[in-house]
Amino acid sequence: SILLDDNSTFTGEKTALPNANSVRGFDVIDTIKTQVEAACSGVVSCADILAIVARDSVVQLGGRTWTVLLGRRDSTTASLSAANNNIPSPASNLSALISSFTAHGLSTKDLVALSGGHTIGQARCTTFRARIYNESNIDTSFATSVKSSCPSAGGDNTLSPLDLATPTTFDNKYYTDLGNRKGLLHSDQQLFSGGSTNSQVTTYSANQNTFFTDFAAAMVKMGNISPLTGTSGQ
């Protein structure tokens, strides 16, 4: 659904608060789809392409592969309100994160494993400003370094890497960051803040292979959330 542009019947998801100025690379998917259609028209959905690209990106950046289940059909509609209401906020506390994932059939273990995807990517200043200026559960030198690119006012769209240590490598350093109180988003640091998920963060920080195994399993599980098949979608 996130690939669909606004039209006369619905407002799409690209401008939803969690997505605007954040999700990007739509042109990459368009290019892939064009080439796939030229090779075998009407066979491979954009939904499957996204699932494959997610896996292949992880592999390219140093992570482990997994088997992507295929056969999804594409949605013909999108929902701005669903994107605004169902994507967890970077200001979420642990209980809200757990509830959000549980609502889609994902466990707390899945939550912690999938959050490790934040070993890659960047966040906008507006999503972590409150954390670096107001919170106490943060390494002071880390907060100071991030403040240099995220002023207390203005610069909302300035980007900082979610994993400062190895921002372009898929590894377990995200969890090491959390253990050192260097999570960029409030929602990230909530996974290691004295709650029920502390031990899992510690495990992943110590054992990258365990993280890779659990991440792959959780990605397959997430990819199985209500896919359109049969005559649904197109």
Automatic annotation (TrEMBL):
S-S bridge residues: 125-150
- Name any cofactors this protein relies on: heme b; Ca(2+)
MF terms (GO), sorted A to Z: heme binding; lactoperoxidase activity; metal ion binding
The cofactor binding remark recorded in the entry reads:
Binds 1 heme b (iron(II)-protoporphyrin IX) group per subunit.
Q: Where does Ca(2+) 1 bind?
A: 1, 13
List the catalysed reactions.
2 a phenolic donor + H2O2 = 2 a phenolic radical donor + 2 H2O
UniProt keyword Transmembrane present: no
Please, which domain of life does this record's source organism belong to?
Eukaryota
Q: Could you say which residues bind heme b here?
A: 118
Q: The Plant heme peroxidase family profile domain covers which part of the protein? A: 1-234
Keywords in alphabetical order: Calcium, Disulfide bond, Glycoprotein, Heme, Iron, Metal-binding, Oxidoreductase, Peroxidase
Top enzyme class = oxidoreductase
One Pfam family this sequence matches: peroxidase
The EC number(s) this enzyme carries? 1.11.1.7
Write out the GO biological process terms: hydrogen peroxide catabolic process; response to oxidative stress
Q: What positions does the entry give for substrate binding?
A: 88
Chain positions recorded as Ca(2+) 2 binding sites: 119, 163, 166, 171
Tell me yes or no: is Zinc-finger among this UniProt entry's keywords. Answer: no
- Entry's family note: Belongs to the peroxidase family. Ascorbate peroxidase subfamily.
Q: What is this protein called?
A: peroxidase
